[in-house]
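Course assignment 3, question 2. Fill in each field.
Student: A.L.
Task: Predict the tertiary structure for the chain below.
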Amino acid sequence: MASNLSNPSSTKQEAAPATKTVKLDASGITNSYANVCNVSSTQEEVVLVFGVNEAWEQRGKDPKIKLTDRIILNPHAAKRLAAMLNNVVEQYEKKFGTLEAPGAKKAGEATSSGSA
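Answer field:
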């Protein structure tokens, strides 16, 4: 008896895979504010560390940054996150204007050592 799999003229069609709906459970979510982020990586993971710079309360002292959250991603998830963040920033800049990257020098600006 011949199999339908080897017969390309078979009229039997396979059902298309059903689409699945992802349901997000936000019942245990917590909110955090961060104005500082540090990133490190290895071959297997990308680590994001978030915190809050409390310099406004420390006049004349060395800045104290309270680290609050660490997120560990695999490189594939990190790349997807980078693409999403780039998209969000592009949309923000279209709506509100270009953001200057912190530490970026403007044209003609002297370096911190005073040399041009």
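Instructor remarks: Helices lie at 75-96. The CA atoms of residues 63 and 79 lie 31 Å apart.
Grade: pending
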